[in-house]
Amino acid sequence: MIAPASTVVSRAAQRRLALFLLIVGAMCIAFAPIFVRLADVGPVSVVAWRLGLSIPFALVWWRRVGNHAHVERNQRAYWWLILSGVLLAADLALWHVAIQYTSVANSTFILNLAPIFVTIGAWMLLGEAIGGGFALALIAAIAGAALLVRASFDISHRDLMGDGIALAAAVFYAGYQLAVKHCRKFYHTAHILAGTAIVTPIVLAPVILLLGEKVIPGSLQGWGAVIGISLICQVLGQGLITWAVGHLRANLASVVLLVQPVTAAGLAVIIFGEQLTPIRLMGCGLVLAGIFLARRSSR
Q: How far is CA 52 from CA 55, 58, 170, 200, 292, in A?
């Protein structure tokens, strides 16, 4: 049976809208490291603000979606949801700390190595097959990361430490993605976003107290930064991406999302005057190639 022309047109229009919103969402998230640098509170506190202020919006979406999961949730399902919040807390906290030590470009591109670790983790823990191109992806990603680290080594040990922290954040980000993948068996995406938004600030509260970080912004710039990272990056950016990926092919969406680290690096050049040396540019390009090949080979 041939679909009506109007239906085909509406689907095509919906895909175009989804593609546009995906690009907008990725560019919104790219502002995260900028807001972290502009905030006058501790880097871990920024994470708490980012997720905490998004809770009302996440709960509204939860209520709108309702309980559509036609599966029985056991106690283990709730622990998986909590684990995803803990892993997200570790990922964002480490990344926000890394941004304070190394360049936005280095921290963002290294963080986006997470798909490499996701593929390895899915192979080791879940027994998922790895595509033939993954070895090439791994070589490209490692070479790119090595060039970024080399660039930091030439600058200062402080930058080098930031790169290491960003790499640790990428590992936790990969763990978060694997946990969310398992949670999707029991929960709608809205439930997962709301659950992690609640768990993450709770997990980070004792860490913030232990570090003695400044929590309350002391200036209009500080308030603008924490509100901006929550509304623009978490609510708008993550919300648009979550909706858009459900209406696009996975391989197309994964490529489009690579605009995020590129945009973040560009913004850092414009706002903070960061220098993208030839070595860093080559490293960024290899990391992007590795991420693209890893996502493609894992399907």
A: 5, 10, 22, 8, 32
Q: Which of 213, 227, 183 is closest to 85 using CA atoms?
A: 183
Q: Which tokens is 4 given?
A: 């009506």
- 64-107 per-position pLDDT tens digit: 876 655 455 667 888 888 999 999 999 999 999 999 988 888 88
- Element housing 178 (H / E): helix 157-183
With the C-alpha atoms ordered 255, 258, 260, 265, is the resulting torsion angle positive or negative? negative
Cα atoms found within 13 Å of the Cα of residue 84, Cβ hemisphere only: 23
Q: What is the pLDDT of residues 227-256, one digit of tens each?
A: 999 999 999 998 888 888 777 766 566 667
Closest by CA position to 234, among listed 61, 109, 103? 61
**How long is the chain?**
299
- Max alpha carbon distance in the chain (Å)? 66
CA atoms within 13 A on the CB side of 188: 16
Q: Which of 276, 217, 211 has its CA nearest to residue 36?
A: 217
Q: Tell me, what DSSP letter sits at residue 231?
A: I
Residue carrying structure tokens 């970080």: 213
237: DSSP letter: I
For the ranges 60-74, 195-209, 239-253, 276-290, the one whose mean pLDDT is highest: 195-209
State CA 79 to chain mean position distance. 22
The string over 141-159, giving b where at least 16 C-beta atoms fall within 10 Å of a residue's C-beta and e elsewhere, is bebbbebbbebbeeeeeeb
Token pair listed for 247: 């209406």
Distance CA 33, CA 29 (A): 9
CA distance 63 to 180: 20
Residue 172, C-beta contacts closer than 8 angstroms, at least 6 positions apart: 87, 90, 91, 94
Instruction: Specify the pLDDT at position 239.
Output: 86
- Residues 6 or more apart whose CB falls under 8 angstroms from that of 230 comprise 49, 50, 51, 52, 53, 54
